[in-house]
Amino acid sequence: MALVEVRNIKKYFPVTKGIIDALLAREEEFVRAVDGISFEIEKGEVLGLAGESGSGKTTTGRLCVRLIRPTEGEIIYNGKDIAKLKGKELRSIRRRIQFTFQDPTSSLNPRLKIGDAIGDALRLQGIGSTEERKERTEDVLERVGLSPAKSFYNRLPHQLSGGQKQRVVFGRAIILNPEFVVTDEPVAMVDVSIKAQILDLMMDLKKELDLTYLFISHDLATSRHVCDRIAIMYLGKIVEVADKDRIYEDPLHPYAVGLMSAIPIPDPKVKKTEAVPRGEIPSPINPPSGCRFHPRCPKVFERCPNEEPELRNLGNGRQVACHLYDY
Ligand SMILES: Nc1ncnc2c1ncn2[C@@H]1O[C@H](COP(=O)(O)OP(=O)(O)O)[C@@H](O)[C@H]1O
Ligand SMILES: [Mg+2]
Questions:
Q1: Quick one: CA dihedral 151, 153, 156, 159, positive or negative?
Q2: Tell me, what CATH number does 82's domain have?
Q3: DSSP state of 295
Q4: Which range among 49-58, 69-78, 261-270, 296-305 shows the weakest confidence by mean pLDDT?
Q5: For the residues of 216-260, what is the DSSP string, one character each?
Q6: How many CA atoms within 13 Å lie on the side-chain side of 125?
Q7: 129: in domain
Q8: pTM
């Protein structure tokens, strides 16, 4: 059984109406940030969620940990639908599932000592005595590589480097001993030179604590290092899912092909053929008809603007939503 199973979830955000719209009685509009997606994450797996900015990755992550409520659909966690949970039940689930925000600086209170930032969740959940909480926090500081813990405990965020702040963010995520962690672009804001260290930390924590990850990143070069499988999103939909090696070596969906060919290649002798995807990502308020990628697709044909392709199984755990593979 999968640890997490998402079934046809949608998240529509209402577009705030101005007075003119109200006067003209214009119909309410929605940003279709996530528009009916399904996927599973096995226990112990790292599933990557990739795609350009604006494709709905962060919203999907926030839905999975129930920071927000889906407009529609189910989120089955350990066999139980958590999509509509509230109050006490939701709080108890939140111990087991954690989310790390993309920007460590803005997600840390600048006036809170990092030891307290990490240990606060214990206090809020009413776990242990003050002394026990401090001990547990020091243990976590060591675990995330902020060592010696005693010298880090009382520091403020501004006294830390970007990489160290990201370590605090992971410390805060693991203090309640979670099972599932959604990590949103964890290395997007850290210096290139320490990206690898943060990814190593993430994988060490996975091993030590038996974690399952949803790893969100627009950077496919990074995802390749840590993910077992990758799901690629475009305008609120999943367009392709496959094992890591398969999707990097042989992407099928034209959007996936475009993303892969845009990954910088260290070898200058290898020439890039086509830098698709061309053009801008359209608005998720009025997404293109049929296949949402059709206006940018180099392989577009008659069927594409008229009919929405389903995400279909091609075997070997591979799924693609594209009319080219519909036979
Ligand atoms: N709270 C919100 N209210 C309105 N629109 C939102 C909100 N959050 C995200 N969006 C919109 O939803 C779409 C997907 O956003 P997001 O999930 O952040 O994508 P990604 O993480 O892939 O960049 C974007 O068009 C974004 O502007
Ligand atoms: Mg995002």
A1: positive
A2: 3.40.50.300
A3: G
A4: 261-270
A5: E-S-HHHHHHH-SEEEEEETTEEEEEEEHHHHHHS--SHHHHHHH
A6: 18
A7: no
A8: 0.93
Q: CA angle at residue 95 from 115 to 238, to 5 degrees?
A: 110
What is the Cα–Cα distance from 126 to 128, expressed in whole angstroms? 7
The per-residue pLDDT for range 37-52, each reduced to its tens digit, is: 999 999 999 999 999 9
Tokens representing 315 are 């075997």
How large a percentage of the chain has pLDDT more than 70?
A: 96
Domain that holds residue 234: 4-111+156-325
Number of domains in the chain: 1
Identify which of 31, 57, 217 to mutate to test ligand 1's pocket (most ligand atoms within 8 A of the CB).
31
Neighbours of ion ligand 2 (CB under 5 A): 58
Could you tell me if the CB of 58 is within 6 A of ligand 1? yes
Structural domain includes residue 125: no
Q: Is residue 103 part of a domain?
A: yes
The contacts of residue 47 (CB under 8 Å, 6+ apart) are 39, 41, 213, 214, 215, 227, 228, 229, 230, 231
